Amino acid sequence: MGSCVFNVGNHYVHGINLFQATSKIVALAKLGRITSARNLFDKIPYKDTVAWNAMLSGYSQLGLHQEVLCLFHRMRIANARPDHFTFTSVLSACADLGELRGGMKIHAQVVVSGCQSSLPVNNSLIHMYGKCLSALSARRVFEDMNCTNEVSWCSLLFAYTSCGLFDAAHGVFDGMPNRMEIAWNIMISGYGQYGVVELCLGLFKKMQSDSHQPDQWTFSSLMNAFSELKEPFCGYMMHGFIIRSGWVEAVEVSNSIMSFYSKLGSHNDVIKVFESTEIRTQVSWNAMIDAHMKIGDTHEALLAFQEAPEKNVVSWTSMITGYARNRHGEQSLSFFVDMMGNHIQPDDFTFGAVLHACSTLATLGHGKMIHGSIMRCGFHAYVYVGNGLVNMYAKCGDIQGSNSAFNDILEKDLVSWNTMLFGFGLHGLATQALELYEEMAASGLKPDKVTFIGLLMTCSHLGLVEKGRALFESMVSVHGLSHETEHVTCMVDLLGRGGYMAQARELVEEYSRTCQVETGLLEALLGACFAHSEVRMGANLGEYLKVFEPRKEMSYVLLSNLYCLSGQWKEAEMVRKTMADQGLKKMPGCSWIEVRNKMTVFVAGDHSHPYMEELYKILNFLRFEMRHPCFSGFNN
Q: Global pTM?
């Protein structure tokens, strides 16, 4: 473009006037060359409002919402006067970021600047408040408007459905002067997000009876709603309806169908839909990655990721989540590092996934580094991320760090309390776990079935039989929660560890009268038999488990050990032979330790570690100290 001097009077910048420069910024942004657009924008010494709006709009259209807010801040410092185009771009960024506080500040600036009578700005305000789950504020903006249109009504309707306020939403829906297809779609999508599938179908039928034709958004909302159901029949039927209606080729519809089959675990159906889709978007590729990860095929997921023409934060997060879910923690961490290196901004789901990877690896050093990234990116206040931090620190052995992360969560949900409770139980801190439970109850939050699993496990590991009994009984009598297999298993384990074998057996028999007994429950009772040398009961349980679950090695191992304990060597040998004939092998014991951010794994029977001799000496010394604590004060 040359390097001629900027002419203030004619508004020239590097050989072209301000109007041409602004047009060039718009064109570059539309081509996705946002960095080039910004470079040109920064070279303009005297920017008018139109130039600022062009750059703001470019960022907004590409979903770079944080950049929109940063640029708007610079615009205010430069004393440039924002107009209604400015505010619509900035409010859209606040909406997509869920920045309620920032949006409220922008609202104040709208009033000060005199733009509160602008219809597009008011519609943007209603949309922003709806996205930020502040339906009351959205209603106030709507009521203060002198002039409304279909966008105003639909934005208010969206605000109510987003907050789950369906009575108010129906009031708006019924009062709309012109009820368009988008209004029906908002209602159907809202009910679907809250799992009210019957009302989704009712609205869909009424929509057609009122001569409104469903479109791609209607069908994608319905398929997304059906994907949350346990039974797939509604989804199958809707897929057939979509094929007959001719909407199956629509990108949004095919993506929702892929997501439905992916959540269902129908890997082959996902591939069929994907291969039949002519236009593939990022959502299509992300659904394919997720489908591969769900069946544990990390290699095919990686190939799909590499083949995808464009990758967004969801693409990277799908890979990180998939690797963590399939116990490939190191690859999950590696992908997170690559993501940051590619300047992709992680979101709360990304951080939750990579924290899960750190938890499975028990790598505290990496977890702390992730924590630092969370602080820098401003996600430390998100409850989902906070819960991940509580779990990560607890699993990595730092219970103080876990408790600190728990205290940093401003608005704790039930998952927060349950995660901290499990953390205390994992570290054998029964007193703290029980105190936390009392604190949770005092806060007015009702415990769920997961809460009691954590409490009963804590009592079991520490032998608190009477406390465990009281909690077990309070589930039904106080909280109205039914006992499930996990609770009964914990209680059997608790009674068994305490030597109350008859009561443990009675509990199993009582539960089996009304519910189907799972192997985990019987294995807990068999383990108790082994601990207390109850050979007769244990032998009967072991023989039953061999028939009931012939492919699980646990029952064979426990039964063999029980026979060995009682000196019945012949019976023990027969159990081992049966196990070998079935092609089963005992899973070797494994432990690991992190030293200087490096993980060292020890597997039973493996003596290949270069310092094994020194390690055995230390272990023997520690064993001696544990058995003879009176010598622990002496130096060796």
A: 0.70
